[in-house]
């Protein structure tokens, strides 16, 4: 029995596991929140980030869920996919555009049934899961801040850039590695698209109506983040734009500026947090997650090919824009590869069983 996007969902699987995962995520969030209070850090609700999610990643995801469900009208679907990929790299920052596309998609596709119960539980897990992750980031930086290894990673970066640059490299104002405005826009949009992809994946997994697949997806998603937390505890590092702010020659986005502010507050004990707790450099969490999402999209061929070039741009963008050291990328690939293979095999097995 197949359940492609666009067909009536078939509710299968053990939903009790998903409800248990939701309860676990809430408990983990509360425990991490209490830990922050215990060590003297006042938690802050990231209202600006939540508003950003509602205004860009959510409409973005709604539109691409419709793209995945579009019926075949000759070459229309292919043209829409190609145009969508171009829009991502050149117009992701045009929030109103994606909001209009989302409204149009909902108007066209309003009759398609939804798995609201499954979607609600998955949203709860996702919200409290990321809330827990951000709380843990504050706790980690508070405890491991004095022993960061960024100096060593910077030395390795300089050796790498000097080898390819043919001369001694100055780390001050080194980033971004490209200065052309068009290239900066493309790399910046590729880096930012991850948030929309995560929301899209949650919508797609819920539309299958399969609670087992939803549990597997969410456990793998946050399992990858857990790997990043473990590596940070072993080899803590914050990244060039946080540890070496002088290496960045241009102003960052409100998200990155918020992260820089919170980094300084935790490290100095002075100031007010903004709610942007995201300080893990090794491995690159962006690359960990995007490799997983690209693997997940294999069952959605249209979206797989739409996002493949974008995600291939996202990988170097983490270094080009100065958010990560070169070593961060290598560690991310080493961790993500076996986990993505296991996830792919589990997905293939579930398809074989259902068919």
Mean pLDDT, to the nearest integer, reads 89
Largest sheet: none
Helical content stands at over 70%
Regarding quaternary structure, how should these chains be classified?
A: single chain
Q: Give the tally of structural domains.
A: 1
Number of helices: 14
Order of helices and strands: HHHHHHHHHHHHHH
Q: Cα distance, first to last residue?
A: 5 Å
Silhouette: globular
User: What portion of the residues fall into strands of 2 or more residues?
Assistant: under 5%
Count every beta strand, where a strand is a DSSP E run of 2 or more residues. 0
Radius of gyration: 21 Å
What structural category do the secondary elements indicate? mainly alpha
Low-confidence stretches: 1-10
Layout of SSEs?
Elements: H1 15-38, H2 47-55, H3 57-69, H4 76-91, H5 95-108, H6 116-144, H7 150-165, H8 181-207, H9 211-234, H10 240-243, H11 254-268, H12 285-296, H13 301-320, H14 326-354
Helix pairs in contact: 1-6, 1-9, 3-5, 3-8, 4-8, 4-13, 6-8, 6-9, 8-12, 8-13, 9-12, 9-14, 12-13, 12-14
Task: Please characterize this protein's 3D structure.
The protein has 355 residues and is an all-alpha fold. The protein has one domain (15-354). Helices cover 71% and strands 0% of the residues. It is built from 14 helices and no strands. The chain has helices spanning 15-38, 47-55, 57-69, 76-91, 95-108, 116-144, 150-165, 181-207, 211-234, 240-243, 254-268, 285-296, 301-320, 326-354. Residues 1-10 have low confidence and may be disordered.
């Amino acid at each position: 029995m197949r359940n492609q996007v666009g067909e009536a969902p078939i509710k299968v699987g053990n939903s009790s596991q998903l409800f248990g995962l939701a309860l676990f995520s809430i408990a983990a969030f509360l425990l991490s929140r209490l830990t922050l209070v215990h060590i003297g850090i006042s938690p802050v609700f990231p209202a600006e980030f939540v508003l950003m999610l509602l205004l860009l990643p959510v409409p973005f995801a709604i539109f691409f869920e419709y793209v995945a469900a579009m019926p075949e009208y000759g070459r229309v679907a292919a043209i829409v996919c190609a145009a969508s990929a171009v829009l991502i790299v050149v117009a992701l920052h045009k929030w109103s555009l994606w909001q209009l596309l989302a409204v149009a998609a909902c108007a066209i596709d309003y009759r398609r049934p939804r798995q609201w119960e499954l979607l609600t539980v998955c949203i709860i897990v996702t919200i409290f899961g990321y809330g827990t992750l951000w709380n843990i980031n504050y706790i980690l930086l508070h405890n491991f801040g004095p022993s960061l290894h960024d100096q060593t990673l910077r030395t390795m970066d300089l050796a790498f850039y000097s080898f390819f640059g043919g001369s001694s490299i100055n780390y001050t104002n080194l980033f971004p590695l490209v200065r052309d405005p068009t290239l900066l826009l493309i790399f910046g949009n590729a880096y930012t698209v991850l948030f929309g992809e995560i929301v899209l994946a949650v919508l797609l997994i819920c539309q299958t109506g399969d609670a087992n697949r939803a549990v597997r997806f969410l456990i793998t998603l946050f399992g990858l983040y857990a790997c990043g937390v473990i590596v940070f505890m072993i080899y803590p590092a914050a990244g060039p734009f946080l540890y070496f702010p002088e290496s960045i020659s241009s102003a960052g986005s409100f998200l990155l500026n918020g992260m820089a502010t919170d980094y300084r507050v935790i490290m100095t004990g002075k100031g007010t947090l903004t709610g942007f707790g995201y300080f893990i450099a090794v491995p690159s969490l962006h690359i960990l997650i995007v490799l997983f999402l690209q693997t997940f999209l294999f069952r959605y061929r249209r979206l797989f090919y739409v996002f493949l070039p974008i995600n291939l741009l996202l990988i170097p963008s983490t270094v080009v824009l100065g958010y990560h050291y070169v070593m961060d990328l290598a560690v991310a690939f080493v961790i993500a590869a076996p986990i993505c293979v296991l996830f792919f095999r589990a997905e293939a097995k579930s398809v074989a069983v259902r068919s």
